[in-house]
Amino acid sequence: MPGGVRDAAVLILVVEDDALSRKALACLLRFREHQVHAVASAEDALQAIHNGIMPQTVLIDVDLPGMNGFELAMLLARLRPQARMILVTAAERERFPATLQNLAYLRKPLDVERLLQMLEPRPTSEPEDCTCHQQMPLEGSSPPRPFRPDAQ
User: In angstroms, rounded to a whole number, what is the distance separating the alpha carbons of residues 35 and 55?
Assistant: First the structure.
């Protein structure tokens, strides 16, 4: 395939309102042979999905204008439950809504190596009813648990 993309079915949707950060992240991911669709808002992300973009992974900036990243993650969990979501934020996990506490996240400024590790394919032995996992437990944290948006 042109550009050396490893699998045409794998797509990362980047949702980042800062144009420079969005372009840099998309460029980095493309350089690492990922397919990327980058948008500036949650609303643009939903429109992309409505238009047929089917991401396997969604990187979501938490502090988006309009619909924030938490709201987008909860909605995407219903619209695209098989997609792996990774929140990107400068905030502490304690700020996350209870329903998103187990979702994977990266702190800003981004640790590029950690991001790339998180994007590695998930094991095929993962349970079918699982919608999202924290890919790399934080030091001293418990193992990842399935994310279910309706679980309190």
Answer: 9
DSSP H/E element including 73: helix 69-79
Domain count, the chain: 1
Report the alpha-carbon distance of residue 139 to residue 10 in Å, rounded: 29
- Neighbouring CB atoms inside 10 A of 92's CB total 9
Does the pLDDT of residue 141 top 50, yes or no? Answer: no
Task: Give residue-wise pLDDT tens across range 30-68.
Answer: 999 999 999 999 999 999 999 999 999 999 999 999 999
Q: Answer yes or no: is 86 within a domain.
A: yes
Which CATH number does the domain housing residue 113 bear?
Answer: 3.40.50.2300
Identify whether the C-beta of residue 146 lies closer than 8 Å to the C-beta of residue 127: yes
